[in-house]
Amino acid sequence: MSHKNNNLFEKFSDWATKFTGSSYAFIGAVLVVLVWAVSGPVFDYSETWQLVINTGTTIITFLMVFLIQKAQNKDSKAIQIKLNELIAAHEKASNRIVDIEDLTEKELDQLHHYYEELARFAKEDADIHTSHSIDAAQRNQDYKYEFFKRKHEEWLQKKEQKKESQ
């Protein structure tokens, strides 16, 4: 897979993201603030002196919001693709959850409810390795319920037969 980055903005944003997250950028920002603070007496702590730091930090913050959002979008997309690949590669994983990030909040809440049910089934299940999806968990739970219900009924019948034979 090619990692070439021909888009100028893409190259700049990747560089800026890496640089602004570095210790060099932090040290540079600290130095700018120190120079500004030390220069206070020279400028007699004037309104212009205060305006310089306020304007500078506001502009940098404004631009950083967009840079951070772009980096976060890219990282999020890469993580989603990796998770989709893991889901697709695992034979027992439910393919229903591939690309769920495109669902509405209401649809995500509905899926969350299903996974809460899955967790409830898992708590009721002694063997944590038997359920692999919502559907499998429901089938497993139904099977176990019917199986143990039948076993319990057989046990009650045997107990009743013992009472009758005594």
Label the overall shape. elongated
Largest sheet: none
Order of helices and strands: HHHHH
Q: What share of residues is helical? A: over 70%
Structural class: mainly alpha
Mean pLDDT comes to: 84
Could you tell me the radius of gyration in angstroms? 31 Å
Strand portion, in percent?
A: under 5%
Uncertain runs are none
Number of alpha- plus pi-helical segments:
5
Total strands: 0
Instruction: Tell me the distance between the termini.
Output: 79 Å
Topology:
Blueprint: H1 8-20, H2 23-38, H3 47-89, H4 105-124, H5 134-165
Helix pairs in contact: 1-3, 4-5
Describe the protein:
It is a single chain. The protein is mainly α. 75% of the residues lie in helices and 0% in strands. It has helices spanning 8-20, 23-38, 47-89, 105-124, 134-165. Helix 1 (8-20) packs across helix 3 and helix 4 runs parallel beside helix 5. It starts with 7 loop residues before the first helix and ends with a helix. The relative contact order is 0.04. The mean pLDDT is 84. Keywords: Membrane, Transmembrane, Transmembrane helix. It holds the Pfam family Iron_permease. This is Low affinity iron permease family protein. The chain crosses the membrane at residues 21-43, 49-68.
